[in-house]
Amino acid sequence: MHTHVTASIQTENYKTIIKSEFNELISDEAVSVGGGGTGFNPHELLAASLASCTCITLRMYAERKQWPIEKIDVQVSISKDKVLASTHFERSITVHGHLSDEQRDRLLEIANVCPIHKTLSNGIYINTSIS
Description:
- This is OsmC family protein.
- InterPro entries: KH_dom-like_a/b, OsmC/Ohr_fam, OsmC/Ohrsf.
- It comes from Candidatus Defluviibacterium haderslevense.
- It is a single chain.
- 32% of the residues lie in helices and 28% in strands.
- It has 131 residues and is α+β, with helices and mostly antiparallel strands.
- It folds into two domains: 1-40; 42-121, K homology (KH) domain (GMP Synthetase, Chain A, domain 3, 2-Layer Sandwich).
- The strands form two sheets. It has a three-stranded antiparallel β-sheet, with no helix packed on it. The chain has a two-stranded antiparallel ribbon with strand order 4-5.
- The radius of gyration is 18 Å and the shape is elongated.
């Protein structure tokens, strides 16, 4: 799988336009740190990636199994541990629907293998160039 996005910032602190092949969104920083507060900040985008991927993965699995799920809510928070030099994600999933305990347990297993979860849990390598 290959994903490509571009981000561009001009002179308006710190409004950044992010584009993929078919979509566009705004990232920004909060007013309290000099931004305009016009979009998700980068950490919110990272949390949103995990939350949305979890929702989509669970919905796809439930549809394939024909399980009666009305709604899936996922909350993600990110915190940094400066002492351990690590990042901690806290994810809470609420599934609305008549499911057995076994079905809920299976959904938890599936959530833990969604593509973004796997990406964030494995080694990440970033190669950067500048021109």
